[in-house]
Specification:
By secondary structure, this protein is an alpha/beta fold. 27% of the residues lie in helices and 10% in strands. It is built from eleven helices and nine strands. β7, α9 and β8 form a beta-alpha-beta unit.
Length: 317
C-alpha cells in the first residue's frame, strides 16, 4: 500500500502486531507501546523506499524466482532475503511514504543477487546511481539513507576487510557482528596487507544488526520449495524431540574449518576420539547429520565464513 505525505487515510496508526500480543503482554507495557505509536515519538515517523537502484524490485520479488533467484542458491531466503522482506514489510506498514520530503529516513531497495555483477560491484554501482539520480539522496548526501547489506559482512569482505569506505558515511543494516570469524575484532584485518586505519565493519552509533530470516525450515510455508523431501535428511515423524535418556551422544559436530579456530580445534582434538559418545567429523550424509543432532546432548555452534548461522534454528527444529 502507498501513503502520500502525512495523510495516512485509513491506514492503521500502529503496527498490527500490537493487537496480536495483547493477550501475552503486560498491560502497562502494552499501553506504553500503544501511546508510543499513536501519540508519541513514532506517531509521525515516516520511511521512504528509495527504488533508484532497483525500480523493478516488486516484480523480481514476486516472480517465480523471487525469493530464490538462482537454482544453486537454495539457501538464499535464509542468508540474503532481508533485502526483499524489509522493503516489502515497510511498504505494507503505516510508516511508509511516497514523498521523500516527508520522510525521517530512507531505505535503499537493492536485491543484489537479482542483478548482474559481483556483490561489491553492485553495491558501489548503486551508490553512484543514488548520487546521480536520487533527489532524496542528493538532498542531504544520503545522511539518512539505510542500505540493507546481507551479503558477506555488510560493507566488509568475509574476512573482515572494509571493501568500500564510501559506505562509512551512511547507515548499514546487516547480519553484522562486532567480532571476526576467528574471534578477533573485524577491523584488525584492515591493516593485514599494510598500514591502515582500524575501520569497524559495524558501527553501533549508526548501523543496525538484524536477525537472519530462517524461512527454510520444514515448519514454514516456503519450506516445500526450498527443502524437497529428504534433501536435508528430513523424514516425516523423524524430528521428534528426545529426552536426555535417549541421547546416546554426548557431543556432535560436523563442519569444515577453513575460517574458524573453533571448528579447527574441534576437528583436531576430537575427530578421532575413541569415545563412542563423541562424534566429530568434517561432514556427514544429511540423514546421519539429522540423526546425530537428535541424539546428542551438546551440539557446538562455531563461527564460520559469514556472520549468520542457521545451526541454532536447525537444532531447535
Amino acid at each position: 500500500m502507498k501513503v502520500t505525505g502525512r495523510d495516512t487515510g485509513n491506514i492503521p496508526r500502529q503496527p498490527v502486531v500490537i493487537d496480536e500480543i495483547a493477550g501475552v503482554a503486560l498491560p502497562s507495557a502494552l499501553s506504553s507501546l500503544r501511546n508510543f505509536y499513536s501519540s508519541g515519538a513514532a506517531s509521525n515517523f515516516r520511511v521512504y523506499l528509495d527504488e533508484t537502484c532497483h525500480p523493478n524490485w516488486r516484480t523480481d520479488w514476486a516472480g517465480p524466482q523471487g525469493r530464490v533467484p538462482r537454482n544453486d542458491q537454495l539457501w538464499w531466503p535464509s542468508k540474503y532475503a532481508a533485502q526483499g522482506f524489509i522493503p516489502h514489510m515497510l511498504e505494507n506498514s503505516p510508516f511508509v511514504t511516497s514523498d521523500w520530503r516527508e520522510a525521517n529516513a530512507s531505505v535503499v531497495v537493492l536485491l543484489v543477487l537479482h542483478l548482474s555483477g559481483a556483490v561489491a560491484i553492485r553495491q558501489q554501482q548503486c551508490l553512484k546511481q543514488l548520487q546521480q539520480r536520487s533527489p532524496s539522496f542528493r538532498h542531504d548526501g544520503g545522511r539518512r539513507h539505510f542500505f540493507i547489506f546481507t551479503n558477506d559482512r555488510g560493507p566488509c569482505c568475509i574476512d573482515g576487510r572494509y571493501k568500500d569506505v564510501d559506505f562509512m558515511r551512511h547507515h548499514i543494516m546487516t547480519h553484522g557482528e562486532q567480532t571476526g570469524w576467528r574471534g578477533e575484532t573485524l577491523h584488525q584485518y584492515t591493516a593485514q596487507l599494510g598500514v591502515g586505519p582500524q575501520l569497524p565493519c559495524h558501527d553501533e552509533a549508526k548501523d543496525i544488526t538484524i536477525p537472519t530470516p530462517n524461512v527454510h525450515f520444514p515448519r514454514v510455508a516456503f519450506a516445500p520449495s526450498l527443502l524437497p523431501a529428504g534433501r536435508q535428511g528430513h523424514r516425516p515423524g523423524s524430528n521428534r524431540s528426545k529426552g536426555a535418556g535417549e541421547r546416546s551422544l554426548l557431543l556432535f559436530f560436523a563442519g569444515s574449518h577453513p575460517a574458524s579456530a573453533c571448528r579447527k580445534a574441534l576437528l583436531a582434538g576430537l575427530s578421532h576420539s575413541p569415545s563412542p559418545r563423541v562424534l566429530v567429523r568434517e561432514s556427514l550424509p544429511a540423514d546421519q547429520y539429522l540423526e546425530a543432532m537428535q541424539t546428542a546432548r551438546y551440539c557446538p555452534v562455531c563461527g564460520g565464513d559469514a556472520p549468520w548461522t542457521p545451526r541454532v534454528s536447525g537444532l531447535l527444529h
